[in-house]
Amino acid sequence: MGLPLEVRGLVLTGDEGERILHVPALDIATGTAVALRGPSGAGKSTFLHAVSGLREVAEGTVTWDGADVAALAPERRAAFRRDALGIVFQDHLLFEELDALGNASIATGFARRRDRAVIRERARTALGRLGIAQAEGRRVASFSGGERQRVAVARALAAGPRVLLADEPTANLDRETADRLIEDVVALVREQGLTLLVASHDPHLIARMDRVLEVRDGTIVEPGREAAVA
Ligand SMILES: Nc1ncnc2c1ncn2[C@@H]1O[C@H](COP(=O)(O)OP(=O)(O)OP(=O)(O)O)[C@@H](O)[C@H]1O
User: Fold this and answer.
1) CA pair distance 187, 208, nearest whole angstrom
2) What are the structural domains, with CATH classification, of the chain?
């Protein structure tokens, strides 16, 4: 099952204290697939980092099922992220010396012994679905951008998250691979009731989502409603 997200009075600022984003109120129901679009530099990545607890929040709350990630102590925040969130961000942060399967199943390093085989199996399945099973034993240092992206997606799914957060996951992929990735991720999200929040400009991806939010003029709006999501 996924988790619900509740954002209240969120203000995100830059290094000099300048305001980047202000989101008065936003709710995402459990199991909803949401696209976040908006011009380059609007603040999509900044928002995803904030809801992941990877970025300090100047004001407000970011609450996943009752837990305000912004208020958690650093270790508890890291544990929450590891246990509940699958994250596919633009800098994939793969371990260059490990092969694809080693990267995709990296969560085994933190998991209890009895969960490790499950994670490894999920990683293998995800790599297969994403079309790189034949390269699972190759070190990722030799992978293309698109292949790295797919390894990062497989890694996020292998940990068994309740929420999947992704930043332009189809950006470096050819149309066919991107469409396959979209189909697989949407199927998985639906099967498992995960909450999905994905920054993307890809019309094929956006068309498959339940809701489309737009980062615009320093806030988040929902086109169609044409008012700040409050
Ligand atoms: N720590 C920071 N200090 C100052 N400015 C910042 C900081 N972090 C982000 N910004 C600025 O905030 C704006 C939003 O950046 P962000 O990366 O979130 O945009 P984006 O919508 O994801 O864009 P893209 O589609 O190009 O990835 C940019 O102008 C960026 O330079």
Assistant:
1) 10
2) 5-92+162-221 (3.40.50.300)
